[in-house]
């Protein structure tokens, strides 16, 4: 599946880059060359946008029910090759197949079925303006959506954008991460078996080449980006320059608040799940700031660190593995730099804190819990995007809410308590787009998910979010003889 060269998809055809250049794709866990993909650039983005624009009128005129049926069929097609895609995904991302890659592909299947089933919910309103006037609204697609997705969960994050955009009548040009494009390209070919040419186009390439070209392409009517806050600011600036709508799902430094009555193994398991250790912490929703009430601080951290130390690091394709490899050397060095910096300032690694000694290949890092961290240190304020959780004690509810909200980010939050009043009161006070109480797992179809502050604009994973993100409301007013 990944021997040799894997081509882009433009206008329904497998396509090389116009310039004829190629990019290597390596397995993070082994350094093995998996494949080469085209190094797309401005000409390729232009061709993909032209194909999407040509396909737009026919696609928008396709009935919502028919569009939904096609998305459902694509979901069925993906389900038939679920294991094959999961293996490809684990190899190119380094994510463990049992806990991350296989569930990620299942999430993509569920999203396709969800948007397939809700595609007919593009409903407008009637507005009474008085006798002799009929006023109604309709939901209209923007046109060609330009999407950009990252490497940490490439199949899920690509499918959620594509399915939502297609369900609402748009066509799509998506630029996928050069670090992990192969599984997305394989999924795109399943789409291609069901869709008219040009409805979905997938371009591979570098961010400052193909990505920049997509941002500057004047025929793109909507931008949708998932990735770092730094790049998100660039996307927003490009959207502002051309006055096009934009959706951004960006970084996070999510708080995880543990109340005194939650000193249990079940809560410790939830905290570990919320930290996204099985994705090497490479998740914008990771609960990487762990606030534990001072009365249970030592005992609860003992539970968490004991469980974290038992997580199996190793080959992403091994069914026993809990934690795979960080994506590349650059990200590995970034993670280690934050850990070393905190320890130099006086922090202590209760577990982990260094490279995993089990292999001299790949970019394996031990799951790390740091204590003795000041809330103002970089490790406690900046997104590390690695398997590193900082633990901080708290005394009063007001204090922990202030600590949780003292962040430029506002993506997710977690509250752990059996006192429903305290849990809901705290959840209501956290500045975040998504707060979970006594749950540390990922997004589900139908759940409106998105951030505030520097974590982004707009929501995904729900038909409500899709309507807001990928359609505009048109008002029609008709005068008649009353």
Automatic annotation (TrEMBL):
The protein's name in its UniProt record: Aldehyde dehydrogenase
Entry's Gene Ontology molecular function annotations: oxidoreductase activity, acting on the aldehyde or oxo group of donors, NAD or NADP as acceptor
Record PANTHER family: ALDEHYDE DEHYDROGENASE-RELATED
Chain ranges passing through the membrane: none
Keywords: Oxidoreductase
Top-level taxon in the UniProt lineage: Bacteria
SUPFAM superfamilies xref list: ALDH-like
Active site: 249
UniProt signal peptide: none
